[in-house]
Amino acid sequence: MSEPFHLLSYFDDLDETKFEETSLADPGYNCIAWAANDNSRWWWPDEDSYWPDSAPREHTFEAFMKAYESLGYKLCLDSSIEQNVEKIAIYGDNTGPLHAARQLQDSRWHGEWTSKLGPYEDIRHIDLNCMCGRLYGTVMIYMSRGMAD
Fold this sequence. Notes:
single chain; mainly beta; 2 helices
């Protein structure tokens, strides 16, 4: 597969051994939706996108946390693997949230992460830090919820 929008040039700690494309480009959903397990719509707190009613339509970490809380996520301490627990990570910088990733539960990739790259591809990546950089900032928040049976 080809590099999505020259992916490697945006992330200092990412190389061909640290990620794998897992879908084709799809402008119908973004990373915030993908972390919420929703690939049917674009999530963002603007008027033109989906946003949970319980979350304020603001580009703040608090609003993004409220959006994920509407799905049962709660603030947690870290990205450690926990049995029967789904985790997400919210990236950002001093301007606010910029990206979200979801920890994979699939037995083949258990503990690795998945990200949607804007309107581009979804990727599986070995850790959270390899997505840090000028595009997404750093991991600012971890959230978790128990898995449905």
